[in-house]
Amino acid sequence: MTEEVQTQEQQTAAEPAPEAAASAPDLNISDLVALKSIIDVASQRGAFKANELEAVGKTYNKLNNFLESVAKKEA
């Protein structure tokens, strides 16, 4: 039984998913702006624990700095 499961997992891992091969990831600046807004709203609503706030803040600041640099390049 275990051998069957391992064999099936190996076959599945060896074959790329048809959906993944057909479409490339689509992430753009507007998605990142939306993500920034999501982080902002979630933090205002208390969605993060106190010990998570440092990591969330650092990530938010990095994202914000990146978006500001992109905006400057476009201007």
How would the blueprint of this fold be written?
Layout: H1 2-14, H2 18-22, H3 29-44, H4 53-74
Ranges where pLDDT stays below 50 over 5 or more residues in a row are none
The biggest sheet amounts to:
none
Q: How much helicity do the residues have?
A: over 70%
Q: What is the percentage of strand-forming residues?
A: under 5%
Query: What does the radius of gyration come to?
Result: 20 Å
E-strand count:
0
- Straight-line N-to-C gap: 62 Å
Task: Find the structural class using helix and strand composition.
Answer: mainly alpha
- SS element count, helices: 4
State mean pLDDT (0 to 100 scale).
Answer: 83
Order of helices and strands: HHHH
Shape: globular
Overview of this protein structure:
The chain is mainly alpha-helical. It is globular. It is built from 4 helices and no strands. Helices cover 75% and strands 0% of the residues. The protein has a domain at 23-74. It has helices at residues 2-14, 18-22, 29-44, 53-74.
Short key terms for the protein model shown above:
single chain, mainly alpha, 75% helix, 0% strand
In short:
By secondary structure, the chain is mainly alpha-helical. The chain has helices at 2-14, 18-22, 29-44, 53-74.
